[in-house]
Amino acid sequence: MKNGYKGPIQDFVVITGFSGAGKSQAMATFEDAGYFCVDNLPPEMIGSLADLFGHGGSKVERAAVASDTRGGEYFDGLVRVLEDLDHRGVPFRILFLDASNETLINRFKETRRRHPLANGGSVESAITLERERLAALQERADVSIDTSGLSAARLRKVVADKMLPHGKVGRLAVTFMTFGFKHGTPRDADLTFDVRFLPNPHYEAELRELTGLDDAVIEYVEKSDGIGEFYGRLTPLLDYLLPAYESEGKSHLTVAIGCTGGRHRSVVIAEHLARIYAPRGDLLVDVVHRDVTKPPRRP
Q1: pLDDT value of residue 172
Q2: Half-sphere exposure of residue 12, counting CA atoms within 13 Å on the CB side?
Q3: Would you state the pLDDT for residue 5?
Q4: Angle between the 265-277 and 215-222 helix axes, to the nearest 10 degrees?
Q5: pLDDT at 2
Q6: Element (H or E) spanning 76, and its range?
Q7: Packing angle between helix 123-139 and helix 78-88, nearest 10 degrees?
């Protein structure tokens, strides 16, 4: 609570960031936690809403509002509005959602939505303009999340872990994320396992174009020398680590599994682990194959 503010509001979150970065999922996280939520609120109205929350008769203790470039020219006043709230001692936090240009472009292509700053131009140029307009907000954000590579469920758990008090997010969420070392390691991995010691299906001509989701590749990997011993050591380790992380306040955990290209061995193993842990009632299991759709390297 900031000095000078006497209202009943205990937590006031302003959600902002890039169009297509996942603000709707972030808002849903706060709604599920019992927050009073308002989406696409013009900046000038944020101050008025804070005034309402400050009245003694207000019963709102936790609130979240989303404000972004959909507000058009009004959005440019958001920094000034937040500075005014800060000067008045209103307690608020800024959650900023970011993503790579490639991720944002792909999301707009998938949803076929129009970028609010496109104005007939390309999505890429609109994102560049948006980065310029958001720079000041990103600098003063209390929490900034890069949503590149995050599924909707995973993003909600990340938001909950970083923004909500521990103990309000339910079961431990475990994401088994596969990747290719040649494409770089995931930035948000909590545990990383390298499975490049297993025979590589890439060097089998009939398997190269397939992935670890195909039966032929699954059979090849599951029959590899050493795979049984690997599972025999990895599963007890996870059985020990998962509750240990949860006891330390973790609400989500990313277990990254990498092979050379992220298309074969790591995918088979992640799916195997998901089948083991998904039925457990104390976990929420998600699987993300980051690089499985990337074309294989030619021999």
Answers
A1: 79
A2: 22
A3: 54
A4: 90
A5: 45
A6: none
A7: 20
3-class state of residue 193 by DSSP: strand
Tell me the average pLDDT of the chain. Answer: 84
CA angle 248, 35, 78 (to 5 degrees): 105
Residues 208-225 pLDDT 10s = 999 999 999 999 999 999
Q: Between residues 265 and 24, which one has the greater pLDDT?
A: 265
Residues in the chain: 299
User: Helix, strand or coil for residue 117?
Assistant: coil
* Per-residue buried b or exposed e for 12-46, using 16+ beta carbons within 10 Å of the residue's own CB: bbbbbbbbbbbbebbbbbbeebebbbeeebbbeeb
Q: Which of 181, 213, 208 is nearest to 298 (CA)?
A: 208
How far apart CA 127 and CA 105 sit, in angstroms, is: 8
Q: Please report where in the chains the tokens 């400050």 appear, as a residue.
A: 54
Q: How far apart are CA 130 and CA 19, in angstroms?
A: 8
Residue 116, pLDDT > 70, answer: no
Strand partners, 37: 64
Beta carbons within 8 Å of 150's beta carbon, 6+ residues apart: 22, 158, 288
Question: Distance (Å, rounded) from C-alpha 226 to C-alpha 263?
Answer: 19
d(CA 284, CA 53): 35
Helix (H, G, I), strand (E, B) or coil at 202: helix
